[in-house]
């Protein structure tokens, strides 16, 4: 069984390996037959060309700023909504929750047209607000946080109220310390998804100065193809592989740094189950 798992891991990692070795060798070596499984002439000319000919630094900063703002808004809404569902009983509580659950049935592609029309009527096209408004509110994150908050004993909240603690103090000193794993997991999950988002920014952004990293890389490859044609197909493939590595690098860095948060969430869920 362990050998089968090892083979499956190799199959899953092979595209990543091929993308990396293809990005650090001359363009002619990428399409060579038989292929160079181990690159002999390592070069970073593909990365250097992309960095020189594009606004990749600006696009990266744009993505970080957009995702950070969206994440802060999302966490604030999740924490306050989760606490309200855990600490209070009000009319329509279950109806609101199941409405969020039902919204997960609708594929996100089916909402693109209505969202685009809404942003157009609000005059938010070609602005960051169109992306922030969409990334800041995720129904699946609300479902996760509500289910986690429901597991917190209400007796702790009632005891704090009897002792005279206000709601803000209960939230920040009692509830939040117990929710670090789920909040960290949702933050990283939302950040990684938003950092790799391409389709929605492509619809609402036209100014290259506002592009995020995925949109900017794809725009560069499209412009390069339209300018040089298919005569430089090998060279274009090298740039595509280098662009894929640049897109994947932030996700790898974030996951390596915060991998303990993912593990804590999985262990916490397993223990509480």
Structure description:
- The chain is an all-alpha fold and 273 residues long.
- The protein has two domains: 1-43, no CATH class; 44-272, MetI-like (MetI-like fold).
- It is built from 15 helices and no strands.
- It has helices at 2-23, 27-30, 45-53, 56-87, 93-103, 112-121, 128-135, 139-150, 154-162, 167-175, 180-195, 199-204, 213-228, 233-257, 259-272.
- The longest helix has 32 residues, at 56-87.
- The radius of gyration is 23 Å and the shape is globular.
- The two termini are 27 Å apart.
- Mean pLDDT is 81; it is low at 269-273.
Please describe the topology of this protein.
Layout: H1 2-23, H2 27-30, H3 45-53, H4 56-87, H5 93-103, H6 112-121, H7 128-135, H8 139-150, H9 154-162, H10 167-175, H11 180-195, H12 199-204, H13 213-228, H14 233-257, H15 259-272
Helix pairs in contact: 1-14, 3-14, 4-7, 4-8, 4-11, 4-13, 5-8, 8-11, 9-10, 11-15, 13-14
Structural key phrases:
single chain; 273 residues; mainly alpha; MetI-like fold; 2 domains; 15 helices; globular
């Amino acid at each position: 069984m362990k050998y089968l798992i090892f083979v499956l891991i190799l199959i899953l990692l092979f595209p990543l390996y091929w993308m990396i070795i293809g990005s650090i060798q001359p363009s002619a070596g990428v399409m060579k037959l038989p292929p160079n499984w181990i690159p002999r002439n390592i070069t970073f000319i593909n990365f250097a060309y992309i960095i020189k000919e594009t606004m990749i630094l600006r696009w990266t900063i744009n993505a970080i700023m957009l995702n950070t703002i969206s994440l802060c808004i999302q966490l604030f809404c999740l924490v306050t909504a989760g606490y309200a569902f855990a600490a209070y009983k009000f009319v329509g509580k279950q109806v609101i929750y199941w409405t969020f659950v039902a919204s997960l049935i609708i594929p996100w592609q089916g909402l693109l047209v209505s969202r685009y029309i809404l942003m157009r009527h609000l005059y938010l096209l070609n602005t960051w607000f169109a992306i922030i408004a969409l990334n800041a509110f995720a129904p699946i994150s609300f479902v996760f946080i509500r289910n986690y908050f429901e597991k917190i004993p209400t007796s702790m909240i009632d005891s704090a109220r009897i002792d005279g603690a206000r709601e803000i103090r209960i939230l920040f000193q009692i509830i939040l310390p117990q929710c670090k794993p789920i909040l960290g997991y949702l933050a990283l999950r939302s950040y990684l998804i938003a950092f790799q988002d391409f389709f929605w920014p492509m619809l609402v952004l036209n100014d290259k100065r506002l592009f995020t990293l995925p949109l900017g890389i794809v725009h560069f490859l499209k412009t390069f193809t339209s300018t040089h044609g298919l005569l430089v197909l090998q060279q274009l493939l090298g740039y595509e592989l280098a662009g894929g590595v640049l897109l994947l690098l932030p996700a790898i860095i974030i996951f390596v740094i915060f991998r303990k948060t993912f593990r804590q969430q999985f262990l916490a869920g397993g223990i509480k189950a």
